[in-house]
Amino acid sequence: MGQPAEKAKEKKQIYKPKSISGFPEWLPEIRLVELQWLDHIRKTFESYGFCSIETPSVEELEVLLAKGETDKEVYVLNRLQATEDDAKEARLGLHFDQTVPLARYTAQHFNDLVFPFKRYQMQRVWRGERPQLGRCREFYQCDIDVINPDHLPISFDAELPAVIFDAFAGLDIGRIRMKVSNRKILIGLLDALGVTDVIGTTRTVDKLEKIGESEVANILTREVGLTTAQITPILELATIKTANSKGLSLAPRNAQMEEGLSELGFVLDNLSHLPEGSVVGDLSIVRGLDYYTGTVYETNLLDIPEFTSSVCSGGRYDDLAGSFINRHLPGVGISIGFTRLFDVLHHFGHIKGEKKSPADVLIVLPNDGQRTAAAETARILRGRGYKVELYHAPQKIGKQISYAEKKGIPHVWFPPFDAGGTHEVKTLATGAQTPASPESWTA
Amino acid sequence: MGQPAEKAKEKKQIYKPKSISGFPEWLPEIRLVELQWLDHIRKTFESYGFCSIETPSVEELEVLLAKGETDKEVYVLNRLQATEDDAKEARLGLHFDQTVPLARYTAQHFNDLVFPFKRYQMQRVWRGERPQLGRCREFYQCDIDVINPDHLPISFDAELPAVIFDAFAGLDIGRIRMKVSNRKILIGLLDALGVTDVIGTTRTVDKLEKIGESEVANILTREVGLTTAQITPILELATIKTANSKGLSLAPRNAQMEEGLSELGFVLDNLSHLPEGSVVGDLSIVRGLDYYTGTVYETNLLDIPEFTSSVCSGGRYDDLAGSFINRHLPGVGISIGFTRLFDVLHHFGHIKGEKKSPADVLIVLPNDGQRTAAAETARILRGRGYKVELYHAPQKIGKQISYAEKKGIPHVWFPPFDAGGTHEVKTLATGAQTPASPESWTA
């Protein structure tokens, strides 16, 4: 001790840690709100009979890249020090969504599942994108999907938005609007009009809200090479916005378009119990992902106009797991971009974490002699469903109360200071202090 | 359609997916049990006032490897296609425990936390080990830790086992025994005896239960080079098993040993409310990890004698975050090896998943004309807290009931088949069918 060599050793090397861009992390008071949100969403999903599954964070690269998309965003795992085993094993990557894992899961466990398979999944996913507001590299998605072999009734396309509205209703995110369409309508029209560049056309139509009708017409003419005879009915269709099937009474030009109109009408009419304006049939919506074949959804936050990206999207896909199983597995799904939503709301000051502890009650420790009795009081209250912290040391009462205040614990419990005494409870918000019994007190 | 080229295209390439060794995945009915377990553990942690934090799945390698341990088990992340950005960014690895992230978190957010900082953390962690029963590469840990600058009262060392016993009491895992010791006792004795190879000695003593007293004495003599005069008091100490401080009345040989005995006595005496035999002071316990400096815990499943590894371990560390902050931060923590526990119980047939859906009630869809009314019934029941699935199509009633049976949904609800009809509910377990009202029915 006290030798120069020892002293030198005491000068520790400090590595000051910092946040990793794109990997959000919250303080306890914000995390408490995040947990409440996740709990509410999960409860809502379960209230419609969706079952939970969780898949590993990784999939084999062969599975992840089966669709050939988003390659460069995939994070691949390597052990820091490779061993001989590594070469024998499949290469693994972190999943970038929950749809590919669902497809793999459904194919792999096909014989053990009961169909229609209604599952929810709330996990972190990873994408090596450049981070920005609402776009993280590690983020939660909350997905519900329904899968049924061969034929999946359209009623599920109408159920998903109802679930999402119940989920959002319990979160303090202001007004939202879900836009619903059916790709068969626009695709059917393009087919009837003899448009060959379907992708170029739908991508342009998708920008309608952002750039306006005349600019869309310009691009369709100049870049996609459509004629006015083609553009006029496309724009006529794409500008339709309606709350129900009545607004869809346009003449179908072929069977595909007719099917799409009928499906979209069913979905809208079965959502008529939702508040006016919350669901809109909007025929300009097409969604980028190529696997959608019918219904498509996207959702905007109306009270945060600065943020225009969708916070909840999805749609119907004709053949989910075609790469993994020789069965026809149509599905419909929707995904809440949970971390995106939370991050954006937090950024605009709408998430105010006020409690740093989940506890309802802090029990004061009067003196060391009362430790056992105070612990017993805590156990009684816990047995009655309360969350109870027992202060750890017989410090000054003011210091113990101040701890409750700092942590946002609403009630301070004073157990007897000696064998004959009584219990009292102080509610910090009002300052009121009253006698109480651990067996019968209610918060 | 029907052209040879088209037909050839229809022959899909199928990649039959398989499980990835070490990355567990459950069917919905087993996942439902896993969720119930996780919920119960979380509820217990919160009932003692522990707050939730979640850290990113990754840390900078510099943080992960600050202690220089478990290098080769760390999974490093690389993007599939590297971009120019990658070279500028810190290298990231998946965390292999929740203690290093907690240390980093506490150091990084030091000024925003209220101390004593009582946090729980229930996340997946990753280790590139060779998988075997109870040892996965991706697994959940459920950790509670308490951290306080400069001085952390011993009362927390006694609180943690109480929390764990409440958590385990709600899981169907049979009898458990937690062994508690305090490293200061054995280390103090070794110091008093002039033993220099402390690590070699404690590692040998740790094997006492497995290999027995005489074999431990043999190794201490032959391999560690101790004398009989040293071995006798070591074995005398290490064979002590006691439920309370009374069994610790041995003469301390120095201040460290005395402190250890007093701390362990306090911990045991404050756990006397737990069932007899559930907590044992066992002085042979030392735990492998070098950062423990006082109390140490480990826990065994008594009813699964085939599995001898600890399912819940931890201890006190003098200086948690010394590599990241120039403050002295003592802590005490314990970790449930959740996936290990669940995997082992499942392997031995103790996890029986019986429900494939969380729903309490399946509402029969009598015919398409009653769809809106049936959906309204579902909404009323959901509003009253029930989990309700509405059958999707007006199929034969027998088929709808069979769906409820296959998914383990206990009640089948028959809404009116026409405008004037009444509601009835059938409970599948008993077959009883009675009239019911959505506004007042109770399960």
What does this structure look like?
With 443 residues, chain A is an alpha+beta fold. In chain A, 35% of the residues lie in helices and 19% in strands. The first copy, chain A, is built from 15 helices and 17 strands. The first copy, chain A, has helices spanning 4-10, 28-47, 61-64, 84-88, 99-108, 155-169, 183-192, 198-205, 208-211, 213-222, 228-238, 255-269, 338-347, 371-383, 397-407; strands at residues 51-52, 58-60, 75-79, 92-94, 117-126, 138-147, 176-182, 241-242, 279-282, 292-301, 312-317, 331-336, 361-363, 388-390, 411-414, 424-427, 433-435. In chain A, the strands form three sheets. Chain A has a nine-stranded mixed β-sheet. In chain A, helix 2 packs antiparallel against helix 6 (155-169) and helix 7 packs antiparallel against helix 12. The longest helix of chain A is centred in the N-terminal third of the chain and has 20 residues, at 28-47. The two termini of chain A are 55 Å apart. Chains A and B meet through helix 2, strand 1, strand 2, helix 3 and strand 3 of A and helix 2, strand 1, strand 2, helix 3 and strand 3 of B. Strand 3 of chain A pairs antiparallel with strand 3 of chain B, so a sheet runs across the interface.
Quantity of strands of chain A, as a count: 17
Determine the fraction of residues in helical runs of chain A and give it as a percent range: 25-40%
**Strand composition percent of chain A:** 15-25%
N-end to C-end Cα span of chain A: 55 Å
Q: What is the overall silhouette of chain A?
A: elongated
Q: What number is the mean pLDDT of chain A? A: 93
Q: Which blocks of ≥5 consecutive residues of chain A have pLDDT under 50?
A: 1-9
State the oligomer: homodimer
Chain pair forming the biggest interface: A-B, 107 and 107 residues
**How would you sum up the major sheet of chain A?**
9 strands, mixed
Total DSSP helices of chain A: 15
Strand order of the largest sheet of chain A: 1-5-6-12-11-10-7-9-8
Global Rg of chain A: 28 Å
Structural class of chain A: alpha+beta
